[in-house]
Structures are given as structure tokens and as C-alpha cells.
Model the fold of this input.
Amino acid sequence: MSVVSPLRPGHLAGLLIALLGLLAAPCPPAAAQELKKAVLIPQWEPQAQFAGYYVALAKGFYRQRGVDMTILRGGPKSPPSRLLAEGRATFGTFFLATALRLRSEGLPLVNICQIVRRSSLLLIARKDGGIREPRDLDGRKVSMWGPEFRLQQETFFRDCGVRVIPRPQGFTVDLFLRGGVDAVSGMLYNEYHTILNTGLDPDELTVFSMDEHGLSFPEDGIYCLEKTWREDPDLCRAVAEASLEGWRWAFANPDKALDIVMSHVNAANLPTNRMHQKWMLARMQDIISPQGVAAAPGSLSRAEYDAVVTAMSRANILADSPPYEAFYADPFK
Done:
């Protein structure tokens, strides 16, 4: 007959330490497999316009909500519409007007989070070129980005009764600075600041703000295909919540947010600098959280939607539009 020796105090302490060690051990690799993979494609090159997403990635906000997020490098060669249609991206950022046009053309986009509430789109000309009023643009060369970015301007031209000679616009405003075009497209947070930094004074410029001409279309929002929303609303909710947290953190910690942005800028070897990105981040706060707007962050109101649909339909650049309820998929309900 065998006899079991009683545990001595030292043995008991050792057993407890071992058990505690097992409890504190990291979760096995299988836990990481529970994360849902997703891909986000911003509509342009890395810059502070997308700081909230880069912050959400770097600070782990997506991962905390169960999302293994990859953020691709956007730009003219990688339009979100194409990447979503081809299944190479799960989510993309679009201007509201762009998303409506694409939806009318057959790409089943739904808005899951409206980030930018005010328009910062501009047309910029030099006064010494004889452009002081919208009618002065008639017959002039105007550089514009691709179809996904020019819908407000097309509405503006039609409302003002002018016909322009469109010219393609890339990453820089060099063509305008060299006199190759009479007016250039710009964002308040980007190209306008770049032009001022070349030495031109604001008094030397004529600036047509889409916002001030009744075309304050909400701009950057997060979109996915209807299929994604229908099959996994929890994923959409997680991406929307994490992105908004990223923006809140970026505005509360601008210097640290700029460190994160510049890491993406430098990796892409882009011709910009921290001072310009600092200006951009501050202006993004102005249009993401404008004073006097009480709407909940991330929401798209029916009034905002109807205003854009009405303006685009009036300018004959939107043949058809979905019902508001079909276009805006509120992930926060």
C-alpha cells in the first residue's frame, strides 16, 4: 500500500506560483486568429487628412475591437472605387458626392461613418490673371483631379453658367505656379497652404470656396459595399468606432499624431514636411468638428444627404439616387 506524502508549505507555495503563472500566460496564437481581417484604402496619398486612421492603427484601436486592419497607400493610381469593386479593399474613404455618383453608376456603396462635415474644396486663381468673379473662369484652363473629386466643381460651373477647359491635376500645384493653368483645385488644408508657402500673398489670390457658394458637401466618409454591411455589421461598427477614436486621440495629442502621420509620409517618400502636415491636421479638426454643428460624430443626417442630392440633380450630374435609408447604414443603432 502506497502512502501519499502531505504537501509541505514550500511545495504548496511553489504550486500556487505555478498556477498563477499559467493564468498570467499570454493567450495562445489561436486568439490572434479570431481577429477579422479588413483593408482600408484612403482616397489619397498618406497625409494628415487621414491621421485618425493611422492613429487608430498605431494605437491598436482597430485591434482592440477585433479588427486586423491594413491601410493601403491611396492616390490617383489606387482609387478606392476600383479596389472595393475588385475586392482588394473592404473599406474606403470617399467624398459624399463621389459616393453618390458611383452608387448611381452601379457600385453599391453604403456610408457607415461620415467623418468630414464641411467642405474645404477651393478653386484658386491669381487676381493679376483677370479672375475675380466666377464668370471670369469662362473659357479658362482649370486643373482638376480625377472624376472622383470634381463633382462639386462641376456643379459650381453649371450653377454659374461657365464652361472651363479642364486640365488634369496631380499631386502638386506646379502647373498653376508656372502659369500652365488659370485656376487650380485645392483643399483649404492642403494646396492653399502650399501656394501661400511659395510666397504668394492671400491678397494676390481669388479663392472660390465651394462652402461659401452653397456647395458645402460633406466630404470624407467611410464606405463599404452593401454586401459587407449586410454580412458583417459588427465589423462595420468596429471600424467606425475605432476610426472615430483615432480622430479624437489625434486632436487631443497633435504632436504624437503627427509623428505617426510622418512615419507614413516618409515611408511613401512624399514631398511634404511636418509644418505643412501640422497645418493640415488643424484644418481637419475645423471641418470634422465645426463649431455650431451638433450632429453626432460619424452620423450622416437626412438633411445633409438631401442637400447634396438636390444640388447634384439640379446640375444634371446625378441621374439617380438611392433612398437615404439604403445609402446610410447607421452602425451605431
The chain is about 40% helix and 15% strand. Strands lie at 36-41, 67-71, 91-94, 109-114, 121-126, 141-144, 165-168, 183-187, 205-209, 221-225.
